[in-house]
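Q&A log
Question type: sequence-to-structure
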Amino acid sequence: MNSAPLKAWIVQQFVPDITPADLDDDYDLIDSGVVDSLRLLRLISWVCDANGIPLDEVPITPDNFRSVNAIRAFVESSAQSQASPAATG
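Response status: OK
Response body:
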């Protein structure tokens, strides 16, 4: 996943006083207060929509959206889950 569009969206929506380049990939968006509970819902929705991830088919926790790196890992993991056949039983 290319983090540039993600960082641009986060900056535009939540911290317009910095540039995307200023947003460190490991910066804790939740503990810092950049993302609160309502913003977390917007972030989750945008990430899932932008990456074709069905909200009802993946486990979504705040830790998956704590930083740019965490979001990237979530998207990559979700893509792998969608690519592999669903377990039945």
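Response note: The mean pLDDT is 90.
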